[in-house]
């Protein structure tokens, strides 16, 4: 069931079109991640949902209630929406307990009981409740911000890069704890993040934005395996993108012929392989090549290869490190699975693709 409908919403700041006819349907109880490069409009979308700003045109409806119809909008405090921003935005002069209970009505006993329930829920130790926010770690502050937002029993939770201040280990733990918590509470959630791995693991629905538009939205696995364009492919992870000729349900490219899921297509197209579909063998069979460069990176290394057949650009792959990976060694490229045929030939190459791509020169 659709809980939140964003319908052709546009927002301009002067000459900048921050959102351009954005349409998105969010399911009740679902977790949606909005990803995209810096300046693509993610925070603007969240701000319009929260009611911190109004659209120039378009409608936002939540649970059958019209929140915004162009510039006519319900104020933020009447929306039943919880917001956790990047920095947590806690009140520095209040204790953790008072931060969580801020603005809540009811008796002191009732408020204390609620603060205890919520601090248990987000994994904050009781002794921390009397501290000021600056005496907590970044991860603990995020948990306070989340408890404060949950205290109002929001129908919708908006998270704007809430884990970005945390280091890698704490980030993964907090993300998992928050995802479990929101699921248990049945709160529909929208997460904005730069981090594609975070989006793919946190959400059950991912929307990729660029230049104020939603380029593609769908379940994480579908977006990862079936991106429409090279930009989306490389934004959601490493990708080997190659030019190919399509015929008879196969893609013919410099790594040989591979089956595709697009049997009806013919002619020239870009195809995409994910790194898990490409491996290096030191004894064949496969496509013969020579290693020209190895950049050791611990568990994985970045390998530059030229095909023995010659005539083609080098290929750069990330592979699990192996002592046999040395410049000058002969190897064979082995591919598996189907090649994914991209809808568009995208000229733009994201820097991310450098990890696993056909070299531009
Ligand atoms: N208050 C504002 N005044 C003028 N321009 C703005 C304002 N807020 C956002 N913009 C512009 O709108 C566009 C979208 O900005 P937004 O903050 O939504 O992007 P974002 O995807 O959240 O970026 P980031 O990932 O860097 O936070 C950008 O070009 C930005 O410069």
From TrEMBL:
Keyword Nucleotide-binding included in the entry's annotation: yes
Domain ABC transporter: 4-236
GO molecular function annotations of the record: ATP binding
Matching Pfam families: ABC_tran, TOBE_2
InterPro entries, per the entry: AAA+_ATPase, ABC_SmlMolc_Importer, ABC_transporter-like_ATP-bd, ABC_transporter-like_CS, ABC_transpr_FbpC, Transp-assoc_OB_typ2
PROSITE patterns, per database record: ABC_TRANSPORTER_1, ABC_TRANSPORTER_2
Statement: the UniProt record of this protein carries the keyword Endoplasmic reticulum: no
Keyword line: ATP-binding, Cell membrane, Ion transport, Iron, Iron transport, Membrane, Nucleotide-binding, Transport
Coiled coil location: none
Name of the protein in its database record: ABC transporter ATP-binding protein
Species: Candidimonas humi
Taxonomic lineage of the native organism: Bacteria, Pseudomonadati, Pseudomonadota, Betaproteobacteria, Burkholderiales
């Amino acid at each position: 069931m659709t809980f939140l409908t964003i319908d052709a919403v546009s927002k301009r700041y002067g000459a900048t079109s921050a959102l351009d006819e954005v349409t998105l349907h969010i399911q009740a109880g679902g977790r949606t991640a909005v990803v995209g490069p810096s300046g693509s409009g993610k925070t603007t979308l969240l701000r319009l949902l929260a009611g911190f700003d109004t659209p120039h045109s378009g409608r936002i409806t939540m649970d059958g209630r019209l929140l915004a119809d162009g510039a006519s909008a319900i104020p933020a405090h009447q929306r039943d929406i919880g917001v956790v921003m990047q920095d947590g935005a806690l009140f520095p002069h209040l204790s953790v307990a008072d931060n969580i209970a801020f603005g809540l009505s009811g008796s002191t006993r009732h408020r204390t009981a609620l603060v205890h329930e919520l601090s248990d829920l987000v994994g904050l130790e009781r002794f921390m409740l009397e501290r000021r926010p600056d005496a907590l770690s970044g991860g603990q502050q995020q948990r306070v911000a989340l408890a404060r937002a949950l205290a109002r029993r929001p129908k919708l939770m908006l998270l704007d890069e809430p884990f970005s201040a945390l280091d890698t280990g704490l980030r993964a733990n907090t993300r998992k704890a928050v995802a479990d918590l929101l699921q248990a509470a049945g709160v529909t959630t929208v997460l904005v993040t730069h981090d594609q791995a975070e989006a793919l693991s946190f959400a059950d629905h991912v929307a990729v934005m660029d230049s104020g538009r939603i380029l593609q939205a769908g379940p994480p696995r579908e977006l990862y395996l079936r991106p429409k364009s090279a930009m989306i492919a490389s934004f959601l992870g490493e990708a080997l993108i190659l030019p190919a000729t399509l015929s008879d349900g196969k893609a013919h490219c410099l790594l040989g012929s591979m089956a595709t899921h697009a049997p009806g297509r013919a002619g020239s197209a870009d195809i995409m392989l994910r790194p898990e579909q490409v491996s290096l063998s030191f004894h064949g069979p496969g496509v013969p090549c020579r290693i020209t460069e190895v950049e050791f990176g611990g568990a994985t290394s970045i390998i530059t290869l030229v095909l023995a057949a010659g005539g083609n650009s080098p290929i750069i792959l990330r592979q699990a490190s192996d002592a046999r990976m040395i410049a000058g060694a002969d190897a064979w490229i082995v591919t598996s699975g189907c090649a994914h045929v991209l809808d568009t030939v995208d000229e733009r190459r994201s820097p991310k693709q450098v990890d696993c791509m056909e070299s531009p020169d």
